[in-house]
Write a structure and sequence with these properties.
about 350 residues; alpha+beta; D-amino Acid Aminotransferase, Chain A, domain 1; D-amino Acid Aminotransferase, Chain A, domain 2; 7 helices; about 25% helix; about 30% strand; binds pyridoxal-5'-phosphate
Length: about 350
Protein backbone atom coordinates (compact mmCIF):
# COMPACT_ATOMS: atom_id res chain seq x y z
CA UNK A 1 0.00 0.00 0.00
CA UNK A 2 1.52 3.32 -1.06
CA UNK A 3 0.97 6.43 1.03
CA UNK A 4 -0.17 9.39 -1.05
CA UNK A 5 -0.15 12.90 0.41
CA UNK A 6 -3.32 14.74 -0.61
CA UNK A 7 -3.58 18.55 -0.92
CA UNK A 8 -7.11 19.49 -1.93
CA UNK A 9 -7.97 22.52 -4.00
CA UNK A 10 -9.67 25.40 -2.20
CA UNK A 11 -11.24 26.53 -5.42
CA UNK A 12 -13.03 23.71 -7.28
CA UNK A 13 -13.85 24.45 -10.93
CA UNK A 14 -16.66 21.89 -10.87
CA UNK A 15 -19.52 24.44 -10.59
CA UNK A 16 -18.52 25.89 -14.00
CA UNK A 17 -18.68 22.50 -15.76
CA UNK A 18 -21.57 21.78 -18.14
CA UNK A 19 -21.60 17.99 -18.65
CA UNK A 20 -23.61 18.33 -21.85
CA UNK A 21 -20.95 20.46 -23.58
CA UNK A 22 -17.43 19.24 -22.96
CA UNK A 23 -14.83 19.56 -25.72
CA UNK A 24 -12.56 16.45 -25.80
CA UNK A 25 -9.24 16.92 -24.01
CA UNK A 26 -9.61 20.56 -23.06
CA UNK A 27 -11.27 20.44 -19.66
CA UNK A 28 -9.22 19.13 -16.73
CA UNK A 29 -10.48 17.97 -13.34
CA UNK A 30 -9.52 19.64 -10.08
CA UNK A 31 -6.60 17.39 -9.04
CA UNK A 32 -3.65 15.45 -10.41
CA UNK A 33 -1.33 12.76 -9.09
CA UNK A 34 2.44 13.28 -9.26
CA UNK A 35 5.38 11.08 -8.22
CA UNK A 36 9.10 11.63 -8.73
CA UNK A 37 11.60 8.92 -9.55
CA UNK A 38 15.04 9.52 -8.09
CA UNK A 39 17.73 7.36 -6.51
CA UNK A 40 16.11 4.30 -8.09
CA UNK A 41 12.66 4.69 -6.51
CA UNK A 42 9.33 6.53 -6.70
CA UNK A 43 9.17 9.24 -4.04
CA UNK A 44 6.98 12.09 -2.90
CA UNK A 45 3.67 10.52 -4.00
CA UNK A 46 1.12 13.32 -3.97
CA UNK A 47 -2.27 14.47 -5.18
CA UNK A 48 -2.27 18.21 -5.73
CA UNK A 49 -4.55 20.80 -7.37
CA UNK A 50 -4.25 20.58 -11.19
CA UNK A 51 -1.34 22.85 -12.13
CA UNK A 52 1.48 23.50 -14.61
CA UNK A 53 5.05 22.26 -14.27
CA UNK A 54 7.99 24.58 -14.65
CA UNK A 55 10.60 23.08 -16.92
CA UNK A 56 14.35 23.47 -17.32
CA UNK A 57 15.30 24.28 -20.94
CA UNK A 58 17.59 21.22 -20.98
CA UNK A 59 14.85 18.86 -19.72
CA UNK A 60 15.73 15.67 -21.57
CA UNK A 61 12.19 14.88 -22.68
CA UNK A 62 12.10 18.07 -24.73
CA UNK A 63 15.13 16.91 -26.69
CA UNK A 64 15.13 13.10 -26.75
CA UNK A 65 11.45 12.20 -26.21
CA UNK A 66 11.72 9.71 -23.40
CA UNK A 67 8.01 9.92 -22.68
CA UNK A 68 5.23 7.32 -22.56
CA UNK A 69 1.53 7.44 -21.74
CA UNK A 70 -1.69 5.53 -21.29
CA UNK A 71 -5.32 6.39 -21.86
CA UNK A 72 -8.35 4.83 -20.19
CA UNK A 73 -11.81 5.85 -19.07
CA UNK A 74 -13.63 5.95 -15.77
CA UNK A 75 -17.40 5.79 -16.05
CA UNK A 76 -20.32 6.02 -13.67
CA UNK A 77 -22.65 3.04 -13.45
CA UNK A 78 -26.40 3.54 -13.38
CA UNK A 79 -26.11 3.05 -9.61
CA UNK A 80 -23.74 6.05 -9.50
CA UNK A 81 -20.52 4.14 -8.67
CA UNK A 82 -17.27 5.14 -10.42
CA UNK A 83 -15.95 2.23 -12.49
CA UNK A 84 -12.72 1.44 -14.33
CA UNK A 85 -12.42 -1.13 -17.09
CA UNK A 86 -9.34 -3.39 -17.08
CA UNK A 87 -7.00 -0.84 -15.44
CA UNK A 88 -4.37 -3.53 -14.77
CA UNK A 89 -3.97 -3.98 -18.53
CA UNK A 90 -3.02 -0.32 -18.82
CA UNK A 91 -0.54 -0.71 -15.97
CA UNK A 92 1.11 -3.65 -17.74
CA UNK A 93 1.23 -1.83 -21.06
CA UNK A 94 2.77 1.27 -19.44
CA UNK A 95 5.53 -0.93 -18.04
CA UNK A 96 6.04 -2.65 -21.40
CA UNK A 97 6.41 0.81 -22.96
CA UNK A 98 8.81 1.76 -20.14
CA UNK A 99 11.03 -1.26 -20.89
CA UNK A 100 11.30 -0.28 -24.55
CA UNK A 101 12.10 3.35 -23.72
CA UNK A 102 14.65 2.59 -20.95
CA UNK A 103 12.39 4.00 -18.25
CA UNK A 104 11.58 2.63 -14.79
CA UNK A 105 8.49 0.53 -14.07
CA UNK A 106 5.60 1.95 -12.10
CA UNK A 107 4.60 -0.85 -9.71
CA UNK A 108 1.05 -2.02 -10.47
CA UNK A 109 -0.08 -1.31 -6.89
CA UNK A 110 1.17 2.29 -7.20
CA UNK A 111 -0.45 2.76 -10.62
CA UNK A 112 -3.83 1.36 -9.53
CA UNK A 113 -3.77 2.93 -6.07
CA UNK A 114 -2.99 6.39 -7.46
CA UNK A 115 -5.78 6.19 -10.06
CA UNK A 116 -8.28 4.96 -7.52
CA UNK A 117 -7.43 7.67 -5.03
CA UNK A 118 -7.47 10.41 -7.67
CA UNK A 119 -10.83 9.30 -9.05
CA UNK A 120 -12.32 8.84 -5.59
CA UNK A 121 -11.40 12.49 -4.93
CA UNK A 122 -12.61 13.83 -8.30
CA UNK A 123 -15.50 11.39 -8.84
CA UNK A 124 -17.95 14.24 -9.27
CA UNK A 125 -16.14 15.07 -12.51
CA UNK A 126 -17.36 11.78 -14.04
CA UNK A 127 -20.36 12.56 -16.23
CA UNK A 128 -23.51 10.85 -14.93
CA UNK A 129 -24.55 7.63 -16.73
CA UNK A 130 -27.46 9.33 -18.54
CA UNK A 131 -25.12 11.90 -20.16
CA UNK A 132 -23.08 9.10 -21.80
CA UNK A 133 -19.72 10.75 -21.22
CA UNK A 134 -16.81 9.48 -19.15
CA UNK A 135 -13.72 10.67 -17.33
CA UNK A 136 -10.66 10.17 -19.52
CA UNK A 137 -7.67 9.14 -17.40
CA UNK A 138 -4.20 10.02 -18.67
CA UNK A 139 -1.27 8.41 -16.82
CA UNK A 140 2.14 9.33 -18.26
CA UNK A 141 5.83 9.35 -17.47
CA UNK A 142 8.59 11.59 -18.73
CA UNK A 143 12.32 12.14 -18.22
CA UNK A 144 13.30 15.03 -15.95
CA UNK A 145 17.11 15.07 -16.01
CA UNK A 146 18.53 18.42 -17.06
CA UNK A 147 21.21 17.30 -19.44
CA UNK A 148 22.30 17.57 -23.05
CA UNK A 149 23.51 14.23 -24.42
CA UNK A 150 21.72 11.07 -25.50
CA UNK A 151 21.42 8.61 -22.64
CA UNK A 152 18.60 7.40 -20.38
CA UNK A 153 17.55 9.96 -17.80
CA UNK A 154 18.12 9.08 -14.14
CA UNK A 155 15.01 10.92 -12.94
CA UNK A 156 11.36 10.86 -14.10
CA UNK A 157 7.92 12.17 -13.25
CA UNK A 158 4.87 9.90 -13.26
CA UNK A 159 1.68 11.94 -13.52
CA UNK A 160 -2.01 11.15 -13.79
CA UNK A 161 -4.63 13.73 -14.65
CA UNK A 162 -8.21 13.30 -15.76
CA UNK A 163 -10.52 15.07 -18.22
CA UNK A 164 -14.29 14.76 -18.37
CA UNK A 165 -15.32 13.97 -21.94
CA UNK A 166 -18.70 13.92 -23.60
CA UNK A 167 -20.12 11.10 -25.70
CA UNK A 168 -17.73 10.56 -28.58
CA UNK A 169 -19.81 10.62 -31.74
CA UNK A 170 -17.52 10.56 -34.72
CA UNK A 171 -18.87 10.31 -38.23
CA UNK A 172 -17.78 7.30 -40.27
CA UNK A 173 -14.33 8.06 -41.64
CA UNK A 174 -12.84 8.04 -45.14
CA UNK A 175 -9.44 6.39 -45.19
CA UNK A 176 -6.60 6.01 -47.64
CA UNK A 177 -3.85 3.41 -47.58
CA UNK A 178 -0.46 5.01 -46.82
CA UNK A 179 2.18 3.80 -49.25
CA UNK A 180 5.04 6.21 -48.67
CA UNK A 181 5.37 6.81 -44.92
CA UNK A 182 5.33 4.26 -42.08
CA UNK A 183 4.15 4.47 -38.50
CA UNK A 184 6.21 1.56 -37.26
CA UNK A 185 8.38 -1.36 -38.29
CA UNK A 186 9.34 -4.44 -36.31
CA UNK A 187 12.16 -3.55 -33.97
CA UNK A 188 11.22 0.12 -33.67
CA UNK A 189 8.89 1.58 -31.00
CA UNK A 190 5.43 1.02 -32.55
CA UNK A 191 4.45 -1.43 -29.83
CA UNK A 192 5.21 1.15 -27.13
CA UNK A 193 2.84 3.99 -26.34
CA UNK A 194 5.66 6.49 -26.76
CA UNK A 195 5.16 10.14 -27.62
CA UNK A 196 7.53 10.08 -30.59
CA UNK A 197 5.33 7.58 -32.48
CA UNK A 198 2.53 10.11 -32.49
CA UNK A 199 4.77 12.98 -33.61
CA UNK A 200 5.98 10.86 -36.53
CA UNK A 201 2.41 10.09 -37.60
CA UNK A 202 1.33 13.74 -37.91
CA UNK A 203 2.88 14.61 -41.27
CA UNK A 204 1.42 11.70 -43.31
CA UNK A 205 -1.95 12.27 -41.61
CA UNK A 206 -1.86 15.97 -42.58
CA UNK A 207 -0.99 15.09 -46.19
CA UNK A 208 -3.93 12.67 -46.29
CA UNK A 209 -6.26 15.37 -44.91
CA UNK A 210 -5.19 17.72 -47.71
CA UNK A 211 -6.23 15.00 -50.15
CA UNK A 212 -9.68 14.83 -48.54
CA UNK A 213 -9.23 11.77 -46.26
CA UNK A 214 -9.79 11.65 -42.52
CA UNK A 215 -6.92 9.31 -41.72
CA UNK A 216 -4.50 6.78 -43.17
CA UNK A 217 -4.26 3.02 -42.95
CA UNK A 218 -0.69 2.23 -41.93
CA UNK A 219 1.03 -0.58 -43.77
CA UNK A 220 4.24 -2.48 -43.39
CA UNK A 221 7.21 -1.19 -45.39
CA UNK A 222 8.80 -1.69 -47.84
CA UNK A 223 6.06 -3.62 -49.72
CA UNK A 224 3.09 -1.57 -48.37
CA UNK A 225 0.80 -4.58 -48.65
CA UNK A 226 0.43 -5.83 -45.06
CA UNK A 227 -2.06 -3.82 -43.01
CA UNK A 228 -1.15 -2.53 -39.53
CA UNK A 229 -3.45 0.07 -37.92
CA UNK A 230 -5.64 3.06 -38.68
CA UNK A 231 -4.49 6.43 -37.28
CA UNK A 232 -4.34 5.71 -33.55
CA UNK A 233 -6.61 2.70 -33.50
CA UNK A 234 -6.45 -1.02 -34.17
CA UNK A 235 -8.26 -2.23 -37.27
CA UNK A 236 -11.05 -4.76 -37.69
CA UNK A 237 -12.73 -6.04 -40.87
CA UNK A 238 -15.80 -8.21 -41.21
CA UNK A 239 -15.48 -10.47 -44.23
CA UNK A 240 -18.44 -12.77 -44.72
CA UNK A 241 -19.18 -14.10 -41.23
CA UNK A 242 -15.62 -13.74 -39.88
CA UNK A 243 -14.13 -10.81 -37.97
CA UNK A 244 -10.44 -10.32 -38.71
CA UNK A 245 -7.78 -8.07 -37.19
CA UNK A 246 -4.02 -7.83 -37.80
CA UNK A 247 -1.94 -9.89 -35.37
CA UNK A 248 0.25 -7.81 -33.06
CA UNK A 249 3.71 -8.96 -34.01
CA UNK A 250 5.90 -6.08 -32.87
CA UNK A 251 4.93 -3.01 -34.89
CA UNK A 252 1.33 -2.64 -33.71
CA UNK A 253 0.11 -1.27 -30.40
CA UNK A 254 -1.50 -4.05 -28.35
CA UNK A 255 -4.83 -2.27 -27.98
CA UNK A 256 -6.88 -3.14 -24.93
CA UNK A 257 -10.13 -2.44 -26.82
CA UNK A 258 -8.89 -4.83 -29.53
CA UNK A 259 -8.29 -7.50 -26.90
CA UNK A 260 -11.73 -6.91 -25.34
CA UNK A 261 -13.40 -7.13 -28.75
CA UNK A 262 -11.76 -10.47 -29.53
CA UNK A 263 -12.91 -11.83 -26.16
CA UNK A 264 -16.49 -10.53 -26.59
CA UNK A 265 -16.73 -11.91 -30.13
CA UNK A 266 -15.43 -15.33 -29.10
CA UNK A 267 -17.81 -15.45 -26.14
CA UNK A 268 -20.71 -14.81 -28.52
CA UNK A 269 -19.59 -17.60 -30.83
CA UNK A 270 -18.59 -15.21 -33.64
CA UNK A 271 -15.67 -16.38 -35.77
CA UNK A 272 -12.49 -14.30 -35.27
CA UNK A 273 -9.03 -14.39 -36.76
CA UNK A 274 -5.99 -12.39 -35.58
CA UNK A 275 -3.50 -12.82 -38.39
CA UNK A 276 -1.54 -11.11 -41.17
CA UNK A 277 -3.95 -9.19 -43.41
CA UNK A 278 -3.00 -7.92 -46.85
CA UNK A 279 -4.73 -5.09 -48.68
CA UNK A 280 -5.22 -7.23 -51.81
CA UNK A 281 -7.39 -9.60 -49.79
CA UNK A 282 -9.55 -6.69 -48.59
CA UNK A 283 -9.99 -5.37 -52.15
CA UNK A 284 -10.88 -8.87 -53.35
CA UNK A 285 -13.45 -9.32 -50.56
CA UNK A 286 -14.93 -5.94 -51.44
CA UNK A 287 -15.23 -6.80 -55.14
CA UNK A 288 -16.89 -10.12 -54.15
CA UNK A 289 -19.42 -8.27 -51.97
CA UNK A 290 -18.02 -9.94 -48.84
CA UNK A 291 -16.56 -6.86 -47.07
CA UNK A 292 -19.40 -6.12 -44.66
CA UNK A 293 -17.74 -3.82 -42.14
CA UNK A 294 -14.50 -2.11 -41.25
CA UNK A 295 -13.81 -0.16 -38.08
CA UNK A 296 -11.11 1.20 -35.82
CA UNK A 297 -10.99 0.08 -32.17
CA UNK A 298 -9.65 2.25 -29.36
CA UNK A 299 -10.44 3.65 -25.94
CA UNK A 300 -11.55 7.10 -27.11
CA UNK A 301 -14.22 6.24 -29.69
CA UNK A 302 -14.54 2.51 -28.81
CA UNK A 303 -15.65 1.87 -32.42
CA UNK A 304 -14.88 4.27 -35.26
CA UNK A 305 -16.80 3.09 -38.30
CA UNK A 306 -15.07 3.36 -41.66
CA UNK A 307 -17.13 4.82 -44.49
CA UNK A 308 -14.63 4.15 -47.26
CA UNK A 309 -11.11 2.94 -47.95
CA UNK A 310 -9.23 4.14 -50.99
CA UNK A 311 -6.38 1.98 -52.25
CA UNK A 312 -4.74 3.15 -55.48
CA UNK A 313 -7.63 3.53 -57.95
CA UNK A 314 -10.14 1.54 -55.93
CA UNK A 315 -12.50 3.31 -53.54
CA UNK A 316 -14.25 0.75 -51.35
CA UNK A 317 -17.48 2.20 -49.98
CA UNK A 318 -18.87 0.24 -47.06
CA UNK A 319 -22.54 -0.37 -46.15
CA UNK A 320 -24.40 2.28 -44.08
CA UNK A 321 -23.46 2.31 -40.38
CA UNK A 322 -27.00 1.41 -39.29
CA UNK A 323 -26.65 -1.95 -41.09
CA UNK A 324 -23.43 -2.91 -39.34
CA UNK A 325 -24.15 -5.62 -36.80
CA UNK A 326 -20.69 -6.34 -35.40
CA UNK A 327 -19.29 -2.82 -34.84
CA UNK A 328 -22.55 -1.57 -33.36
CA UNK A 329 -22.87 -4.63 -31.11
CA UNK A 330 -19.31 -4.23 -29.80
CA UNK A 331 -19.80 -0.55 -29.01
CA UNK A 332 -23.09 -1.26 -27.25
CA UNK A 333 -21.46 -4.06 -25.23
CA UNK A 334 -18.54 -1.88 -24.04
CA UNK A 335 -20.80 1.12 -23.32
CA UNK A 336 -23.21 -1.21 -21.50
CA UNK A 337 -20.43 -2.68 -19.35
CA UNK A 338 -19.16 0.80 -18.50
CA UNK A 339 -22.64 1.93 -17.49
CA UNK A 340 -23.28 -1.27 -15.51
CA UNK A 341 -26.20 -2.12 -17.81
CA UNK A 342 -24.55 -5.25 -19.27
CA UNK A 343 -23.63 -7.99 -16.80
CA UNK A 344 -19.84 -8.13 -16.41
CA UNK A 345 -19.32 -11.81 -17.20
CA UNK A 346 -15.73 -11.00 -18.21
CA UNK A 347 -14.62 -9.71 -14.79
CA UNK A 348 -13.32 -6.47 -16.34
CA UNK A 349 -15.06 -3.78 -14.31
CA UNK A 350 -13.59 -2.44 -11.07
CA UNK A 351 -15.66 -0.27 -8.79
CA UNK A 352 -13.92 2.63 -7.05
CA UNK A 353 -14.94 3.17 -3.46
CA UNK A 354 -15.79 6.77 -2.79
CA UNK A 355 -15.39 7.94 0.81
CA UNK A 356 -18.73 8.73 2.37
CA UNK A 357 -18.91 12.39 3.33
CA UNK A 358 -21.31 13.57 6.04
C1 LIG B 1 -1.45 3.64 -32.11
C2 LIG B 1 -2.62 3.14 -31.35
N1 LIG B 1 -3.20 1.98 -31.72
C3 LIG B 1 -4.26 1.47 -31.05
C4 LIG B 1 -4.80 2.13 -29.97
C5 LIG B 1 -5.97 1.53 -29.25
O1 LIG B 1 -5.56 1.09 -27.99
P1 LIG B 1 -6.59 1.01 -26.77
O2 LIG B 1 -7.70 0.14 -27.23
O3 LIG B 1 -5.81 0.38 -25.68
O4 LIG B 1 -7.03 2.39 -26.49
C6 LIG B 1 -4.25 3.35 -29.57
C7 LIG B 1 -4.81 4.10 -28.42
O5 LIG B 1 -4.37 3.92 -27.32
C8 LIG B 1 -3.14 3.86 -30.26
O6 LIG B 1 -2.57 5.01 -29.87
Amino acid sequence: MYKIKVSKTQDSRLPSLDFTQIPFGKVFSDHMFVADYRNGQWEDLRIVPFQSFSMHPANMTLHYSQTIFEGMKASKSVKGSPMLMRPEMHSRRLNASADRMCMPHVPEALFLGAIQELIALDHQWIPPADVEGSLYVRPYMFATDEFIGVKPSQTYKFVIFTCPVGAYYSKAVDLVTEQEYVRAVNGLTGEAKAGGNYAASLYPAELAKKRGYDQVIWMESPEFKKIQEVGTMNLFFVIGDTVITPSTTGAILKGITRDSFLTILKSKGIKTEARDIYIDEIVEAYLDGQLKEAFGAGTAAVVSHIASITHNDTKMTLPPVAERKIGNMLKAEIDGLRAGKVADTYGWMQEIKVPVTV
